[in-house]
Amino acid sequence: MDTQALKDSWHLVSRSGDQVPLYFYSVLFLMNPDVRDMFPVSMARQRDKLVAALGKVISNVDRIEEVVPVLQQLGRDHRKFAVTATHYPAVGQALLATLEHFLGDRWTPQLAHDWTQAYNLVAQVMVEAANDASKTSPPWWEAEIVSHDMRTLGIAVIRARLNYQYPFRPGQSASISYAMRPRIWRFYSFANAPRQDNTIDLHVRMVDGGVLSSALVMGARRGDMLRVGAAVGERLTLPPDVQGDLLMIAGGTGLAPLKALVEQIAYEGPTRRVDLVVGARNSRELYDYEALAKMAAEHPWLNVVPVVSHDPFYRGTRGYAVDVALQGWRGQHVYVCGSEEMAQATVGRLLDAGVPTEQIHFDEFTSDKGRES
Ligand code: HEM
């Protein structure tokens, strides 16, 4: 298989921008009208995720060994869209038709052969992982909202009870969909460690143009139902080899997974000093401060430092969370979570200040690409 030819051809095709998913979905839905219902009602082109992923993943098939765990995760997670093995040939066919259309004369039998092989390889990994997962876990869990607490304009803390046992680790997230906005899935982190009563807490901020986040913040009520995909993500979990004190830096609702880690330490130990620096633009956005202050009062090892960046009248510490955090860095591992912009800027500052890369654990919310913070 000529993997360079796959990359080059995808590069050429992607130059046609939004026309590519438009063509792909037209072919897919025309040839397989039954799959239309799996996709969101509005298929705004800029929101396309599938076609971009297909091109990227398949044209990098020479690195498949590296991405197998991600593909397995993707395959397992695709069960939430009601995707089964029988749908893969349809997507493969639409992909090939799209490539042929945009490549014109450059579409050769050899290239068609290589794309087919590469697609089948990726599809096989996803299908096998989905089949394995079906033996032990459902495609999604149902969760009933038991409380909806609007903390400030545009931020709600939602507690939901899952219908049966849901395995996850503090620091992980899951894709969530809401009955009032069917088929739209977005990732949210859990703001708690696993509980016996099977409830989870979500910190939801309404993002611009975010159909799901707006509905969850403004429209969701007690008794409404959510769907929750399997828990994913390792970047913000606390592995056994991360020993000693911790420094945590939260931006906005990026607090959620860090709060979950604090709960984990409180429940499981070993106790260690945790400095949690919570950054917000103004004091209203310190939406969970009361709960954090209560936790700090209960646990002497926890130090919570609220920091506000854009409010000249704020009486507490003003500035950027990372600057305040760095004043207290004494070699600890650092956990960072916030918007994409905040996470990138914070990690950059930490590296500049000499914090070793392997001691920085971070994740980011990219609100326009499938993750609403
Ligand atoms: C090699 C095969 C495939 C790859 C690499 C792939 C990759 C992806 C990725 C990365 C996403 C975004 C992740 C997310 O929103 O959770 C996605 C979304 C999706 N995929 Fe796939 N996928 C594949 C096959 C399929 C098949 C066979 C179907 C069935 C028709 C399918 C249906 C969907 C749907 C319905 C979405 C959500 C789209 C949206 O919300 O706009 N995928 N896919």
TrEMBL record:
Which cofactors is this protein said to need? heme b
Reported EC number(s) for this entry are: 1.14.12.17
Which InterPro entries does this one have? Cbr1-like_FAD-bd_dom, FAD-bd_FR_type, Flavoprot_Pyr_Nucl_cyt_Rdtase, FNR_nucleotide-bd, Globin, Globin-like_sf, Globin/Proto, OxRdtase_FAD/NAD-bd
Which residue ranges run through the membrane?
none
Record-annotated FAD-binding FR-type domain positions: 138-241
> Sorted alphabetically, which keywords does the UniProt record give?
2Fe-2S, Heme, Iron, Iron-sulfur, Metal-binding, NAD, NADP, Oxygen transport, Transport
Q: By its UniProt entry, which Pfam families does this protein fall under?
A: FAD_binding_6 (PF00970), Globin (PF00042), NAD_binding_1 (PF00175)
Asked if the keyword NADP belongs to this entry, the reply reads: yes
Broadest EC class assigned to this enzyme: oxidoreductase
Q: Which reaction does it catalyse?
A: 2 nitric oxide + NADPH + 2 O2 = 2 nitrate + NADP(+) + H(+); 2 nitric oxide + NADH + 2 O2 = 2 nitrate + NAD(+) + H(+)
Chain ranges of the Globin domain: 1-131
User: What family classification does the UniProt entry report for this protein?
Assistant: In the C-terminal section; belongs to the flavoprotein pyridine nucleotide cytochrome reductase family. Belongs to the globin family.
Q: What is this protein called?
A: nitric oxide dioxygenase
